[in-house]
Amino acid sequence: MTKLTPKTxxxxxxxxxxxxxxxxxxRGLRNxxxxxxxxxxxxxxxxxxxxxxxxxxxAREDLNPITVFQDRSHPQRKAVEECxxxxxxxxxxxxxxxxxxxxxxxxxxxxxxxxxxxVTDGSFRDSPEIxxxxxxxxxxxxxxxxxxxxxxxxxxxxxxxxxxxxxxxDDVMVGDAEGVVVIPAHLADEVAAEAVEMTVFEDxxxxxxxxxxxxxxxxxxxxxxxxxxxxxxxxxxGR
Amino acid sequence: MTKLTPKTxxxxxxxxxxxxxxxxxxRGLRNxxxxxxxxxxxxxxxxxxxxxxxxxxxAREDLNPITVFQDRSHPQRKAVEECxxxxxxxxxxxxxxxxxxxxxxxxxxxxxxxxxxxVTDGSFRDSPEIxxxxxxxxxxxxxxxxxxxxxxxxxxxxxxxxxxxxxxxDDVMVGDAEGVVVIPAHLADEVAAEAVEMTVFEDxxxxxxxxxxxxxxxxxxxxxxxxxxxxxxxxxxGR
Amino acid sequence: MTKLTPKTxxxxxxxxxxxxxxxxxxRGLRNxxxxxxxxxxxxxxxxxxxxxxxxxxxAREDLNPITVFQDRSHPQRKAVEECxxxxxxxxxxxxxxxxxxxxxxxxxxxxxxxxxxxVTDGSFRDSPEIxxxxxxxxxxxxxxxxxxxxxxxxxxxxxxxxxxxxxxxDDVMVGDAEGVVVIPAHLADEVAAEAVEMTVFEDxxxxxxxxxxxxxxxxxxxxxxxxxxxxxxxxxxGR
Amino acid sequence: MTKLTPKTxxxxxxxxxxxxxxxxxxRGLRNxxxxxxxxxxxxxxxxxxxxxxxxxxxAREDLNPITVFQDRSHPQRKAVEECxxxxxxxxxxxxxxxxxxxxxxxxxxxxxxxxxxxVTDGSFRDSPEIxxxxxxxxxxxxxxxxxxxxxxxxxxxxxxxxxxxxxxxDDVMVGDAEGVVVIPAHLADEVAAEAVEMTVFEDxxxxxxxxxxxxxxxxxxxxxxxxxxxxxxxxxxGR
Amino acid sequence: MTKLTPKTxxxxxxxxxxxxxxxxxxRGLRNxxxxxxxxxxxxxxxxxxxxxxxxxxxAREDLNPITVFQDRSHPQRKAVEECxxxxxxxxxxxxxxxxxxxxxxxxxxxxxxxxxxxVTDGSFRDSPEIxxxxxxxxxxxxxxxxxxxxxxxxxxxxxxxxxxxxxxxDDVMVGDAEGVVVIPAHLADEVAAEAVEMTVFEDxxxxxxxxxxxxxxxxxxxxxxxxxxxxxxxxxxGR
Amino acid sequence: MTKLTPKTxxxxxxxxxxxxxxxxxxRGLRNxxxxxxxxxxxxxxxxxxxxxxxxxxxAREDLNPITVFQDRSHPQRKAVEECxxxxxxxxxxxxxxxxxxxxxxxxxxxxxxxxxxxVTDGSFRDSPEIxxxxxxxxxxxxxxxxxxxxxxxxxxxxxxxxxxxxxxxDDVMVGDAEGVVVIPAHLADEVAAEAVEMTVFEDxxxxxxxxxxxxxxxxxxxxxxxxxxxxxxxxxxGR
Lengths: 239, 239, 239, 239, 239, 239
Known about the structure:
The structure is a homohexamer. Chain A is α/β, with parallel strands linked by helices and about 240 residues long. Chain A is built from 7 helices and 13 strands. In chain A, α2 packs across α6 (about 190-210). The model of chain A has no long low-confidence stretch (mean pLDDT about 95).
């Protein structure tokens, strides 16, 4: 029911994370942007999808030898095979970027499976390779060491923190070249609709500013003339 | 089965966290000490108990009004009432000390219930009051804001990270005036026994050093004479 | 008009910063506690007073030789002589603790002048001496270098940031052994009154918890019986 | 009088921030480079202009609803409309990058008004758009949330700190692909002239090093032969 | 004897730092990747060479005027002239990026001398110029101030820490577009050989994943079929 | 020759680190105070002695098993036995406090040998025990893990960095309850003499301030009357 509709998904692909954070701010949500998490491949296009989460805890040496991945039910591998197409795999790496949350082969597998993106508040390894893949990927910075060095995958699809933001399964993750915002599931439709409207207005404003117009009275539209101009512009543009 | 025996509990009360980290280091475990977590009330005596964990995620404003505590099943309140006597309540606050993980009334309730201690990698509020209670409490630093400002309690008794250390339910938490160490449950008995032995030797060494003896050949006991002296001392002391 | 009344001042001396942050949280103010700012002399008693601010910028070497203090109108010295008795001198040191915001002689002068306290988000020098003075003083940590090393005092009694909190002149600063909270001037009276009421209830709760009562239904008082007990207790105590 | 002359402005466009910091270091100024502040659009060319400053303090929630921008005299909007053409808008964001100091529309307006650049020690939102504008922009990292989330603009054209450097109105801001340096207003002419001279010499040195010459005796020019070679080279090059 | 053989050097140029950290992890070495050190010029190709180290301590003002470089035996200049061709100059800058560890002219000289690369856990100045040179260079971030501002070169070719990793002279430094890994000298040959083997397998896995194969049973190769497929693929590819 | 004279040693025991940093600031030395390094046992009295240094690098696992201390020439143990009486052992722990730089037994040995103090920019273990010893000890914070976890002692009595300050062997380390300052060896006598004079004046100022005198004209002594009063006071006090 809270699952993302095709309409909302399409709308969210046309708006910026900046615009979305303003919509959320208006609703009292001030802390939905993942701080200091960056795209590896901004050209891979906007990322939109429901959160499918993976939780890491610190690695204890005796529990994390290289052999753990022989277990087909290891949560990291399981998450990579089970994250639904269209969803975004979001990893709580406790902001510890000293070892990779995942690497090129796993991200490639997610891409092939139709997953909409991958996000960690830690690091990826094989980052030069990931930067060339056609799946949006977001992390703090590159780090080569295997995740076993610092991380143990422990839980799938539970509420997590990621980069100091609460992420609940099925919250809507939206990423652009600036970063990633988390939209609570129940707000996705209304926020998407409002953000589309705001984007129309901001496009109008940008055009006027490029023509030399002052921002006073224009942005926000406190002057009657601005509102009239916008209505006319909108009609002319068919938006 | 991995539950702490009375013997091991008693032994662990007589050894330091420094000695315990060395025992764990010898077993390849280098990362069991909670970094930058400090006692509020070091006089409350050593803390020993099995970990009973509480996991926090970042607070989302709409989910964390002041009224949430009217719910008797709120995980923070539930944890305070259900943490077993003799256990230690360990809170994963994601090292975010900007709001309190708990305050004086809850810690007092834990004390009355016979809980062995409370640990967070965040903050406590009412810290001056907690500093006077007869239950060991460990945090990063004081912070007055209610936990709702930054934290949402979400899970009870799952594996967590605390101050960059993995903590599994029933791991053994030991705290002294220096800080807190986590002993994996299956190692508690052997580590306790070894630490007691090491402590006897270190007491001997300290006595000799205070008498003016060089540490070379003494610590570690690479000289035959040291080993003979120690054997004699031990016999004389009945340890 | 927004100046602190004697009644409010007295009330604020009897409540904790923890209680005050909860009152402010209920009003949507989540960020009024000075993070990581600590008392040097918690025994100096509670601190209550209107903010009188001093703003520092980074020191440029050529503008900050040792001779600048020969200028009687140097803002730091001027602030020390002009901060009103009963007010609190609050310094924006940009959270840079590598040089002192002030030292023992200036703090002594403030004490003699009847100033209610001094707060910086940086450091004090002569901290062992300040720790023995009868004026509450709060800082991040001790640091011996003269403020000229890192700071230039530039403005008096303008709005500032201190430890990531907005402080406007005449906001009410309250400090206890835990730290410092900033109450917006226009809320001081109502917050003080509410905090006094909350403190009465928390004292009742603490007493009951010490008697062995569970917190469920007690804190918050969701049970009718709790409310009746509290009413009776209050009457008996005359509070 | 201390305003930037066209000659100095032109000279500063031809030298690097590295060379300028050395000129300043020779004058005892060790702390004039903005630490960890980076260009969004290095191709927008060198930035040179007098500082026009904007000071932010932490946002208090009740003072910073989305409606504040309806006020035409809001300091952020006022600064954007009043920063002189040829000047650089420098924002003291207290190194808090968790919310944007400004966004694409405001930066576009500055560009249209002929402002020489914009600098913050925080973040910009709409960073992908700003990266394509023909006005130099420098920040710490991208961050989407509106500035109201964390910042309140409070003062225009007062001395500020930016990235731990003192910036006085009319100090000369110079930016290249490496970052931004602040030249005290009264030193601008002499530093510009000296930096041009140093650049000539460094170009000579680089040419010689590319030809295989050792740096010993060359850089610095401690050998008589080097000085003779340089004089000849300079003459030949007409510099 | 532990010097890098041409075969090992060539092998190391064909494998990633991610693969190498896994080989080292299998040998119990968890901490060989330089954290938060990034390539300026990833297109300059892989970096492989023995470590030749340079140790910096904090600069004391009286010992570090601009004239110190007139001394031909200044350790920084000496290191630049004496670092062997094929080696990598590794600088311990104590992770202090507030001043440059080196600049464009020195890095150019290293390039001309046939040095294999330069690494610092601090900063470079003239970073835009270095980014265009044909020698791999790795640092934390750009910073324009001369190294005299913060650093004094003190020792050549002693064991150092760099970005929290131990680096001994003649350890093998390998860098790619992700970062830099340190291989203890005595392990270089065996780790290189193993990494080449791992890379063959990972290339096979990547190909299969791109064809739609699940990672379960494939990576790691726990299924008999995978091992057979790989043997056949290897034969076919002649690797 | 630069060794500390008994007179200078005695003088330095009577002045504060705050006063000393001002003397050094007047000589252009702005960075001689160890930042964020704190006394464990402030009651152990002032610390004065020549620096005897010990340099740590990050621990590589294979080089740092528990058995390394069986080597009598291990630099840490050697330093503890060879640091001269009256000197201060200063350890460069690269500000890494995650493992101990030393523990109770070694510090006890130093005390017995007449060493004047021990300083690290990392941690001590057995900190509660060290807090009770009669030898000044300074560190960042307590940490229980053995130094082998993070540190390898590598060099004795070479120039080091400690808490971002350059420390050369035989520099004079002075510690009080506030922290530690490093006086370059060649300045020790003159700085000690000047600090003693400054202290006399500051004692006079403090007395006057406690009597209610304004600081204007008094501190600094810009009024003729102040200078006359001070001369009279000095005479009367026989200082």
